[in-house]
Specification:
The chain is mainly β. 0% of the residues lie in helices and 41% in strands.
């Protein structure tokens, strides 16, 4: 007979910290150059005038100003359009 107990499945072992994604500066707020506006996985929100997007899809302010959000239609490679939110610094 075996001398080792049967290895059962273990549940509730995932103990990862959250990624802290989301909108960091909301519409109407003043921002300085380089501030993080949105942290996201994938391009759910797109960078507009006065902003730029970094390698991990984080949207930053390219200049100091006031944040605004605008609904746009973004065209994909196939020609289909998708509704997206554009982040703007005015």
């Amino acid at each position: 007979m075996s001398h080792v107990k049967a290895g059962g499945s273990s549940k509730n072992i995932h103990n990862n910290a959250g990624a802290r994604l989301g909108v960091k500066r909301f519409g109407g707020q003043k921002v300085n150059e380089g501030e993080v506006l949105v942290r996201q996985t994938g391009s759910t929100k797109v960078a507009g005038p006065g902003t730029y997007i970094s390698r991990n899809f984080t949207i930053h302010a390219a200049k100091a100003g006031i944040v605004a959000f605008k609904k746009i239609k973004k065209g994909s490679f196939t020609g289909r359009t998708h509704p997206r939110t554009q982040v703007i610094v005015e």
